[in-house]
């Protein structure tokens, strides 16, 4: 083949590669993989904030994790983002996430634990917190009774010397909400105190005022 034809063929090949976005540079393998939250502790019953990865080198094309994440948590194999809503408490454990592209792979350990949600309930009277007051935790309140009575009682206990009682809230209830109530001291209905809230909007502290 004449030299001019060879040169033209080489030039045409180069133009074709350029027009197709061709790149002869090798893919840089990912390195120094990290996560935005590590170690991570997730409360039961609430959607977690997306736990996002970052790495040096060219972008990873695939992610994998071993062992499997706790129930109701998932790793996106394309982006590596961890999302979900834990439904049960699980012991803290280490999970190995591997990020891979055409150039190679890198790995990091992510520590994840899920905790039961706790609520501290304080019973109040005009004089302040009430030690030894009965507090009932239930899955609902029957508003058809006067005073309203707990439905699906989970636990009953008395407040401590500071007038508080701490409950571990289950991850789910039949009604999707949890209620706390304190009966009146003398049977007068208007002193009965109750507070209900969605498990997804649970506050860490609850005040039950019996006035």
List the helices and strands and how they pair.
Layout: H1 3-19, E1 31-35, E2 40-43, E3 53-56, E4 62-66, E5 73-75, E6 82-84, E7 90-101, E8 104-115, E9 117-125, E10 128-129, E11 134-142, E12 149-158, E13 164-169, E14 177-182, E15 193-198, E16 205-209
Parallel strand pairs: 2-8, 9-16
Antiparallel strand pairs: 1-3, 4-7, 5-6, 7-8, 9-10, 9-13, 11-12, 11-14, 14-15
Question: What this model shows, in words?
Answer:
It is a single chain. The protein is mainly beta and 211 residues long. It has two domains: 25-115, Sandwich (Immunoglobulin-like); 117-209, Carboxypeptidase-like, regulatory domain (Immunoglobulin-like). The protein is 8% helix and 48% strand. The strands form five sheets. The chain has a four-stranded mixed sheet with strand order 2-8-7-4, with no helix packed on it. Strands 9, 10, 13 and 16 form a four-stranded mixed sheet that branches. The chain starts with a helix and ends with a strand.
